[in-house]
């Protein structure tokens, strides 16, 4: 059984705070603080340019990619780190479209994170508007997969509601209809067991600052199925995806396998922080994590529904059908969340009306859940959110 | 007069090392070490998700962009940070091509950094191969700018030789012929005075881990001329370039001005390190920097030519015609550089035969130059490079 008391001890959690926003930005792993300090002093400071070889910086996108891969069912050598999730979406989608040149429809849903849709829109415009982005409701996705679809592009866990798509069956349907499946694991990686190999996914992408605790703006990842990795074109053909970057040839030749999805010089500060953050996963059994996550979420739902009747559940009630987060809906959601934050319970708000809470067993326990509900109950019962100070919108919500 | 003794004191330079590779990776600014430690503890650790508003993370790409802008002649609000240089090249080029839809030629030269050419190649393929990347020799660029050229895409300072293009006259010629000018300032920003406004450049991009000392894989920048910023399409249309990112609309609407060149979640560790590194530029007069840079380079050339006759100068002799770096050519350049590094003189090697040295007055003085030449002379005179250990190629050269 995974020791979640031990994993909790690996994080810095400010006194008096119940942090239910690790689905947006994970807390500071103590190891990341140490590791970054060592990078600054012993590597950048002492080794200078030699750090690229001697400290292994150049290979970090692959090394860290393999560590992320172990959490998402990806074999060694199939995941590489770099850039942001939006860029990785673009890479995956551009490659996927070229594998089905005769198909002109990208199918996605309204539960996808908007940036994925925006990147698709930009790509379609570059491609001369020959393609169409078709957006259906999440529950209509399966029926909408037909022979016109070239690429099915979905986020497995809905960022607002936590609703979980069935990756395996949707990928199978996509393949049956001749389409390529691109999965965004932003709210999945580290939140629940993911099995890219078992689901036979073609591409997957994700970010690492949520459940993987890599820090603000930590690098993203991309997975390409081994059967495709040597076939795909990297639309963003940067020098570190070249077969021999340091030959400085004028012409581009893609590197072997997943290496071709590298683009520019990797962000080493972010990569070492993430690498250290991933230490917390050593010894964690993903089945234990899932069981505990569902238990915490179920407890939160039950207690909130009992004690705060004016809030409406915005997430699937069945734990098997959602990720590791719970949303409740209320017209004054923004102010309610501000009032919660002022009382030390940190979640976030997603327009138009969702207050969202992430539950990450690595550092959140039952006591935290009960404390959060008590404070939420006080705020709702006494309308504490109804103060002008909580209604002022900040830049980042 | 700029106090270069003072700027030198702002960097950590390992004992006994002469660091002539700041044109590849600048040394550690002491302020960056402190600032990153504070980010980890006081911001990520204590503020958690609130750091995006309270520590100003969300606005850092603009704030740091403005600081970089002051070093390259860009007005406030015209530069934004993020991603890697390769990605920024793609953005600039895609936008530039759309401003000249009827023109099908991208003109560049063989002195451009290969990644710029690779990214152009990838973009052309996405655009359906309707465009052509024409690569001429650096000295043929001016004559090759004609009415067929849609975009002139050049790196101002050649990464191998240090040869400096005349940005102002080439931009003027491009404009006279109806073309858009995209400038890569990778080896210019912080190396010499740059005046994007005076040159009337359309787009500029650059990296910040060289002369700006932002650290390994520090974020890149992009400049768009104010007269174009609201007209251009962001091909990489990510959520943070959206007019209202936190409205989570399904449709993309570009943000105003330079904001639309933002893509995904910004890399905060890299941004704060860079922000602190830029403190070293407060009080630096770029004309002083240029004068001192030319003096150091001229001294190095004169001494090496006098004392190492087997090396051939690979850089322009006239200081006004080059950046802040000097290359010498030798068939055994790789081994010579390894021998130098073993003796504490750090430069780098660029295939096929260039040993390359960067001179950055912020922390390099005449004594360093003379010490480097003495060691180089010893290595050349006594053929110390002719040892097997110096001929083994490392991953990063």
UniProtKB/TrEMBL annotation, chains A, B:
Pfam families: KYNU_C (PF22580)
Keyword Hydrolase carried by entry: yes
Cofactor(s), names only, from the UniProt record: pyridoxal 5'-phosphate
Pathway: Cofactor biosynthesis; NAD(+) biosynthesis; quinolinate from L-kynurenine: step 2/3; Amino-acid degradation; L-kynurenine degradation; L-alanine and anthranilate from L-kynurenine: step 1/1
Keyword Hydrolase: yes
Species annotation: Neorhizobium petrolearium
Subunit structure: Homodimer.
Record keywords: Hydrolase, Pyridine nucleotide biosynthesis, Pyridoxal phosphate
Swiss-Prot/TrEMBL catalytic activity: L-kynurenine + H2O = anthranilate + L-alanine + H(+); 3-hydroxy-L-kynurenine + H2O = 3-hydroxyanthranilate + L-alanine + H(+)
Family designation: Belongs to the kynureninase family.
NCBIfam families, sorted: kynureninase
Official protein name in the record: Kynureninase
Amino-acid positions noted as binding pyridoxal 5'-phosphate in the UniProt annotation, renumbered to this chain: 85-86, 113-116, 155, 184, 187, 209, 239, 265
Gene3D superfamilies reported in the protein's UniProt record: Aspartate Aminotransferase, domain 1, Type I PLP-dependent aspartate aminotransferase-like (Major domain)
PANTHER family with a match to the protein in the record: KYNURENINASE
Enzyme class: hydrolase
GO molecular function: kynureninase activity
EC number: 3.7.1.3
Role according to the record: Catalyzes the cleavage of L-kynurenine (L-Kyn) and L-3-hydroxykynurenine (L-3OHKyn) into anthranilic acid (AA) and 3-hydroxyanthranilic acid (3-OHAA), respectively.
């Amino acid at each position: 059984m995974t020791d979640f008391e031990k994993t909790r001890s690996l994080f810095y959690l400010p006194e008096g705070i119940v942090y239910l926003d690790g689905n947006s930005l994970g807390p500071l792993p103590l190891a990341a603080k140490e590791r970054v300090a060592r990078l600054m002093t012993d590597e950048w400071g002492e080794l200078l340019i030699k750090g690229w070889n001697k400290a292994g910086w150049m290979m970090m996108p692959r090394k860290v990619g393999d560590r992320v891969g172990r959490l998402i069912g990806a074999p060694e050598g199939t995941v590489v780190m770099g850039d942001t999730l939006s860029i990785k979406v673009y890479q995956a989608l551009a490659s996927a479209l070229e594998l089905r040149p005769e198909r002109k429809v990208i199918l996605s849903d309204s539960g996808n994170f908007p940036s994925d849709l925006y990147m698709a829109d930009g790509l379609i415009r570059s491609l001369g508007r020959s393609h169409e982005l078709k957006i259906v409701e999440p529950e209509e996705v399966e029926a909408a997969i037909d022979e016109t679809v070239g690429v099915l592009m979905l986020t497995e866990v809905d960022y607002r509601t936590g609703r979980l798509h069935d990756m395996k069956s949707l990928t199978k349907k996509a393949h049956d209809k001749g389409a390529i499946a691109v999965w965004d694991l932003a709210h999945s990686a580290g939140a629940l067991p993911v099995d890219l190999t078992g689901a036979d996914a073609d591409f997957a992408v994700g970010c690492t600052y949520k459940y993987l605790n890599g820090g603000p703006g930590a690098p993203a990842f991309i997975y390409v199925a081994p059967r495709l990795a040597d076939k795909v074109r990297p639309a963003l053909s940067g020098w570190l995806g070249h077969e021999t970057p340091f030959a400085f040839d004028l012409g581009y030749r893609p590197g072997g396998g997943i290496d071709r999805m590298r683009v520019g010089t990797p962000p080493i500060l972010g990569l070492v922080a993430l690498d250290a953050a991933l230490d917390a996963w050593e010894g964690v059994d993903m089945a234990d994590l899932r069981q505990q996550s569902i238990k915490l979420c179920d407890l939160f739902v039950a207690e909130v529904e009992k004690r705060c009747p004016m809030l409406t559940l915005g997430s699937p009630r069945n734990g098997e059908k959602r990720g590791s987060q719970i949303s409740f809906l209320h017209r004054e959601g923004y102010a309610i969340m501000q009032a919660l934050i002022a009382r030390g319970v940190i979640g976030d708000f997603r327009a138009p009306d969702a207050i969202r809470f992430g539950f990450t067993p690595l550092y959140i326990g039952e006591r935290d859940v009960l404390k959060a509900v008590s404070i939420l109950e006080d705020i709702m019962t006494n309308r504490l959110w109804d103060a002008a100070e909580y209604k002022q919108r900040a830049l980042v919500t």
